[in-house]
Amino acid sequence: MDFKTVKEMLRRIFAITFTAAVLACTASPKAQKPVEGIPNIKPDEQQSLVAKEVVGLIENYNYKKIKLNDSISSLIFDRYIKALDPSKYYFLESDIKEFEANRNTLDDDLRIGDLSAPFYIFNVYLKRYNERVDYSISQIKAKYDFNQNDTYVYDREKMPWTKSTAELNDIWKKRVKYELVNLKIAGTEEA
What we know:
The protein is mostly helical. 60% of the residues lie in helices and 0% in strands.
């Protein structure tokens, strides 16, 4: 590697670092909306700095020279929701509609280190998860008619988001019954 190449590389690194420092000083993340009923997880300063650095690395050092934009923001949004709730057992349709406001802004938010939207979505997920655990536990001791013809969709990935907690409760009641049937078939005493 010759001196010119090293000099150019150092100039680029300095430019990126300087830009990140300026953005860190001028842009402040939005206040995160709290989720009632759970201790909320919030991003710390280091996570915000890492988000900005990752955006810089993706945009400046990726061999494809990808620029984060609204279409990539939308892709990140979809993958994040799918990673949290791939079978649509936790989020309600109303949650997804609320999250949609962040679909095309994640790129801009990440660029300034604002992680409030992903953390808010995760906090809602934690709340829904805890609700489902509590509901499932309450259903374990319920009396079930195993001779009744019920339909349970195990893989809900292609199903629509549920509209209400009552609809989600029905799905989870069937899920608990399904699991109890499997335990009975396996000969487990707890069933």
